[in-house]
Structures are given as structure tokens and as C-alpha cells.
Amino acid sequence: MSGESRLEGRRVAVTRPREQARSLGRLIEREGGEPVLLPVIRIAPPEDWSEVDEAARRVGEYDWLVFTSANGARIWFERVATLGLEPVGSARVAAIGPGTAEALEKLGARADLVPADYVAESLLDALVSEGARGRRFLMPRASEARDVLRLGLERAGAEVTEVGLYRAVPNADGREEAERLLSAGPVDAITFTSSSTVGAFLEVVPEPLARSALERASVVCIGPVTAATARERGVRVDAVAREHTMSGLVDALAECLSAGHVREGVSG
């Protein structure tokens, strides 16, 4: 916790899934801010578990088990436990960033590799540098995740198995709640922690209200991929976290708002 309340009096919209929003909300509260929880996405199971279950039964055949999100780590361990199987086997474990590594640690596993920059491209470079040719990689992940890792590892001569553990889908049930909270008063900032949150915000929140909020508030993204998605969807991005973690996002929020980037009906 910092010695000063860097977000004192600021209302900050949190668009993460409900079960994860509170962790970011607590960080905002520690800085004196008021988190406005807008769970515009929810985590849904795959339509068919068969590929996941088959991969779990063969986990001992893989050299690397690669996790690209805390959700992926948690759901993998939960599913494997229901099958009564070993979640890691003899595979080495890679995590895309410290948040995922921390989730693994809480689940009783240690990440053998965490890249310096917490994006898929950096994880790819780190895995290739460990020697990818002829190695077998298992990647339990979101069904809609990018193909950067798989394609890069395959080009490096690896065999890659991806299994869709979960889907991040728009939370239609949150529409009325979002309308109520955003209509109650302006927010100073809107945070996006994944590309899915950007698309879901624009889908779940009624268009006039969404655009008004985005024009007036500072928009802060957790990383460059999320920021690129926002810009592709016509959303102005005011700041991107240098460290792609929840703490890094709060730092970016504080810097952005202290620099006076709160909008007053002006789109950038």
C-alpha cells in the first residue's frame, strides 16, 4: 500500500468477471478510490469437456504445461481433481505472468518459467529459448485466446496441444446493473483487463450510455493487446499499464488520473 491515497475520490469502473472483480476493487479501495463493479463478462465452461479430459489423462506425455491466465490454472486444476488425476505430472510449468504464477502457487504448483514481459510474445521467446524443437506442449486456455503461442512454437518445431477450458462470454444478466451504476453518476476511469472485457462492455452496456461513459472517463488497459482491441473498436485509450498485472493497472490509473486525463465530454 502506498503512503498516499492516489485515487482519493475517484470512481473507477471494473469490468472483470464478478468473481475476480473484487481483487482489483480492493486495490482501488486501498488507494482511496471507489470501485464500480461492472461484470460485463462471465466465465462459462466449454460446451464439451472431452478434449480437456483426454489431455488430462495424457498429461504425463508432455514436456511443458503452459498457462496463460489465472483462470486457466484454476479451472485446469479443478477439472483434473474431479477426474482424480495428477494435474502436472512430470511436465515443466510455464506461466504468462506473476498473477498466473501466484494462482499456480495457491494450487500447489510452482511455475518453472515466467517471462520478463507478461504477454504471449515474451512467453513464446522464453519457451523457444529453453528449446522447443521436438518438445510437446500442452496449453489449457480460453477457447477464444490468440494463436501467437501455438503458431510460434509450431514454427520452432514443437508439437502443441491446445484445449479450451473456458469461454469468456458477455454477461447479459449484468445489463441492468451496468445501466444503474453508470447512470448513478460519472466514473473517472474505466479499466479493461482483457480484450473480452472491451467487446463485452460495448455489447452489454446500452450504446448511448457506453459511449458517453467512454468519452468522459479515462480508459486504462492492462496491456498492449487489450489496448489494441479497444482502439480497433473505436475506443480511445488514455493509458496502458507498464507492468501487465492488477497492481500495474492501478499504478497506470493513478498516473493517468493525476495527470488530469479525466474527460469532460471530449473524445480523443
In short:
By secondary structure, the chain is α/β, with parallel strands linked by helices. The protein contains eleven helices and ten strands. It folds into two domains: 11-40 and 171-258, Rossmann fold; 45-168, Rossmann fold (3-Layer(aba) Sandwich).
List strands and helices in order, with pairings.
Elements: E1 11-14, H1 18-30, E2 34-37, E3 41-44, H2 50-57, E4 64-67, H3 70-83, E5 92-95, H4 98-106, H5 120-129, E6 136-142, H6 148-155, E7 159-170, H7 175-183, E8 189-192, H8 195-204, H9 207-216, E9 218-221, H10 224-232, E10 239-240, H11 246-258
Parallel strand pairs: 1-2, 1-8, 4-5, 4-6, 6-7, 8-9, 9-10
Antiparallel strand pairs: 3-7
Total domains: 2
Helicity level: 40-55%
Return the structural class.
alpha/beta
Radius of gyration: 19 Å
List the strand order in the largest sheet.
2-1-8-9-10
Low-confidence stretches: 262-268
CATH architecture of the largest domain: 3-Layer(aba) Sandwich
**Total DSSP helices:** 11
**Mean pLDDT value:** 92
SSE order, as H and E? EHEEHEHEHHEHEHEHHEHEH
Give the overall form. Answer: globular
Strand tally, please? 10
Strand content: 15-25%
Distance between the termini: 32 Å
CATH first level of the largest domain: Alpha Beta
Sheet with most strands:
5 strands, parallel
CATH topology of the largest domain: Rossmann fold
